[in-house]
Amino acid sequence: MTAENPEPQVQKPLHVVACIDGSEAALAVCDYSAWASRHMEVPLMLLHVLDEEKYPAKTDMSGSIGLGSREQLQEELVSLDQERSKLALKHGHLLLDQAEKRVMAAGIEKATKRQRHDELASSLVELEPESRLFVMGLHGESSAAAGRHVGSQLETVIRSVHRPVLLVPDQFQAPRSAMLAFDGSPTAFRSIELLAGTPVFKRMPLHLVMVGSETGKHRVQLERAKEALNTPGMEVHLAIREGDVEKTLHAYQEEHDIDVLIMGAYGHSRIRRFLVGSTTTKMLETAKKPLVILR
């Protein structure tokens, strides 16, 4: 091809990316990812990331031993570290093989498998051009080992990526309904546009819930959001509730037995701000059903 006629770039297909690890949530991640892949009608990718900090690809211990008489000990430590990395790599391949069997049993004909040696957030950022949705467990492998309830890498991932993130509990239940935490902001309306183009939410009741006072302005914003969905036959419910954001959203979800809570991350409004700091941790810790985080 000449400079005047450059070779056309091939558009990579967008995937649902299942983040697989050794946690109890891994099976549910497989199940929810398979469900999302089928309903969104996009291919599935199974991803395992070998943590660069725990299992470095190349160990450099120069200076950590000190005296030259200890060179043999240094070599043994390097060899031991390399062996640990090899075993972790092999374990990752086994996890991906088991995940592949799981999603195929759930109706997926073919899944792409990838293993990366990096930090999770960095890996997901690099995969964004070929990703439509990331699926992660609320309770990760490292958090379980440290005795924490919520995955330690969740906040970093949510702050880093610009694709929706589906955070799932340890047990799978096929979603039948969803709710969006709505605040009337331009970001909230972009979330509405995103939902309108997502096939999965056209097949279930969707609740638009605003936490705030019952005013004419808020009611008009909700009605505009409903019109923006513009999907014939879609069941949409509108609600305004006063109170603490986290408690009010969970209460509404329980009252109406809603399976999936959808919300935007970060910003200045009450709903977006609550995802920062201790409120984020509290929200994730109290979540018993899937959360979709939109950026």
Q: Which features characterize this protein?
A:
single chain; alpha/beta; Rossmann fold; ten-stranded mixed β-sheet; elongated
CATH architecture of the largest domain: 3-Layer(aba) Sandwich
Give the ordered list of helices and strands. Answer: EHEHEHEHHEEHEHEHEHHE
CATH third-level topology of the largest domain: Rossmann fold
Q: How large is the share of residues in beta strands?
A: 15-25%
What value does the Rg take, in angstroms? Answer: 22 Å
Kindly give the count of domains. 2
With strands numbered from the N-terminus, the spatial order across the biggest sheet is 3-2-1-4-5-10-9-6-7-8
N- to C-terminal separation? 38 Å
The total count of helices amounts to: 10
CATH secondary-structure class of the largest domain: Alpha Beta
Q: What is the β-strand count?
A: 10
Q: Uncertain segments of ≥5 residues (pLDDT<50)?
A: 59-67, 144-148, 272-279
What value does the average pLDDT take? Answer: 81
Secondary-structure-based class equals alpha/beta
